[in-house]
Amino acid sequence: MNRRSVVTQWIMTSVAACLALYFASEFLVPITIALLGYLTLRNLVVRMCKLGVPRTLSAMLTMIILVAIGGTAIVLLYSPAQQWLTTAPATVGRVQEKIRQIRQPLETIDKATEELNSDASEDAELEVQVDQPQLISSDVVLTRTGNMLLLIAVIAVTTFFLLATGDEILNRGLRILPTDEDRDKAIELASNIHDAVGSYLMHITVINIGLGIVVSVAMWLLGMPTPVLWGAIATLFNFVPYVGPLAASGVVFIAAVGEFDSFTYAAGVAVVFWLITAVEGQFVTPSVLGKNLELGPVVVLISVAFWGFMWGIPGVFIAVPLVIAMRLVFDCFETTKPVATLLGSSECEPPDCDQQLEDHEELAEMASAD
């Protein structure tokens, strides 16, 4: 097979894969998020199993804890979020008015220009009725809330079953591989993906929660209303490197302009918000995650754009762990190693394959015993 045929085959395969990812998004998104949840929470389940707790019960307790934390967060954030959404139209109006005041010198020039051209047109003024802006209609809210609850339920149930039986499924898959070499390579790949992606998600979640607490305190000291809401926004948006903190800073700026009389002070609030996220991104995250999980800004931006186009908002938030997993998979095959290099591949020490297989078999036996 000549080089041109190989390139053509790769292009056709890539296009087919992209089409499959796009059109099967409603099925793939919850499954992918559940897999990421499994990679993040598996270590907790394994530790419970080693303490003598049955595998199914360990998975159930883990999901109960997760749901309790999520429910508590929703209860704490519901009132501030509802308050902000209720006042958002008026806030946008105040922001527009302050921007209009800043542009007033330019409007003076525009008025002079209009006076010069007033003789050329004698059209009567039209009466325009402006309705109160509404960000989101109630029907849209109900529909999207129902869809979101259904998505969360599917993700939670799938994550539970993966935590309860995922290692057993992996162990069965290993047994059907024809050779020990293939089995060892599969164990190494699965272990590397679990260690890299699971470690990234666990550490970045803890870091972002800490960031949210710091931001909440800072916003409270600066006099921003609902400081807990801005801390939650910082936590959520920081899962999207580079782009997320900038977008969150823009939201804080709009809210601050609508809240404070001084435009300069409002800008200062947004700058403080951005500085906190910048310090975290430049010093805290690199020191915790290390070089092995470091991705360049170009790779991050392209991956966020790609997965955002494919899977919408969920794709934006899970783009980075997906790139980390793809990099590890590409690094295992000679034909795709150049792609892994472009994504920032780094050499990692291979795990003890025999020990990994024993762990999988032990956990599979626990799951089957349940």
From TrEMBL:
Localisation: Membrane
Chief place where the protein resides: membrane
UniProt topology in membrane: Multi-pass membrane protein
Keywords, comma-separated and alphabetical: Membrane, Transmembrane, Transmembrane helix
Transmembrane segments annotated in the record for this chain: 20-45, 57-78, 148-166, 200-222, 228-256, 263-284, 304-330
GO cellular component, one term: membrane
Database matches in Pfam families: AI-2E_transport
GO BP terms in the entry: transmembrane transport
Family statement drawn from the similarity comment of this UniProt entry: Belongs to the autoinducer-2 exporter (AI-2E) (TC 2.A.86) family.
Protein name stated in the entry: AI-2E family transporter
